[in-house]
Amino acid sequence: MRASETSSSLRGEVTELLAHLIRNACVNDGSVASGQEARSAATLAAYFADTPLEVETFESAPGRTSLVARIEGRRPEAPTLLLMGHTDVVPVNPTRWRHDPFGGELIDGAVWGRGAIDMLNLTASMAVATRHLARRGFAPDGTLVYLAVADEEALGRYGADHLLTHERDAVRADYVITESGGIPVDTPGGLRLPVMVGEKGSYWCRLRIGGTPGHGSQPYRTDNALVKAAAVVQRLQEHRPETRIHEIWRRFLDGLGLPDELRAPLLSPESFLDALELLPPAMGRLFHACTHTTIAPTTVRGGTKINVIPDLVELEVDIRTLPGQTDADIEALLAEALGDLAGDVEIERIESDLPSASPIDTPLWDALQRAGDAFYAGSAIVPLLSVGATDARFFRRAGSTAYGFGMFSRNLTFEDYGTMFHGDDERVDVDSLVLSTDLWDAVARDLLEDHRS
Hints:
By secondary structure, the chain is of the alpha+beta class. It has 15 helices and 19 strands. α1 crosses α15 (about 430-450) and α12 (about 365-375) packs across α15.
């Protein structure tokens, strides 16, 4: 693994900026008043104050502020690269953490806190790389844009969606890089660095299960909505959507260099689930989610009093969809899963978003491959489908090529990375922060300098 000459000087800077963003505690619970990303927008505006960067802020609702900084290119026909990091984080239960989730403490070479992995680490490293490029007089043919965006953790309505709807010129870009990807994975074919080239869609719904109220002391032969809801949850848990071997999955497996006895079962719907049983748990969950529509009941509400048979229970269900699937496909899948209980269930769609994907054979892909090899000699990047939503989907629909990537040290395992997303004891090692900072510098220079159309 190689590091740039500037790594040592950036180490303290990127560590402190990440700690500051964590301490800002921009917790987004989905309500319009939460997030308050204006705190981190102000932090970043102050951080950029001594540079020639063009800095703008955009407020979509009180306190819901996104920041844009740009280095304008010399050639209008040259491409624009947008580095996008979000500043909001998900809620946390501090009693489950070993350290203060909003302390931003540096402990044993790692920065601890909510957002350290998702994704303030990249938001901070992108800012540091952009600032240092500007201070060194970076004057590329193409344009470099840094975006610290609000509201990624709750549908993007006050962030990326708002900007692309109302401030399109400020964030227009040919190429976008945002979160996920880049965790080094050892494979039989060598070291591989996944690039998120697409993501699953979502279908969030509320299931209403009705019953008949009665006295809790006489439950025999009652129409108990909670009992029926338990059966509904069991049906959803036991339903097995088909395995779908799509093009991104096929290219991902091809890039791993697996021997045929390992590769073939993961490309066959008939043997896929058996093959998953041989993998580590986090990898098995990811591989399953990459190839299946997933159904997860997540919240339940019902009942009015301990001695009253409930007449209504509401379940909220998180369904993630694969490339090519539509809302109608999911409604048919739910009917199939519920079977003879379907007539007792009213389905209300809360939110839905179609899957999205970017082409793989692009100049940005080539630049990331060169960067990956520079940091990890002999490595190769491989395409992967993100199983969660990111703001990349808005930019793909606006015509941009958008990938999820980063550069991480070998200290961060694939297993740890997966469990810390929205999990407990979130942290990132400083070596990874430095590598990501160097990555953005390298990719900006590769993609934007000396461009010829």
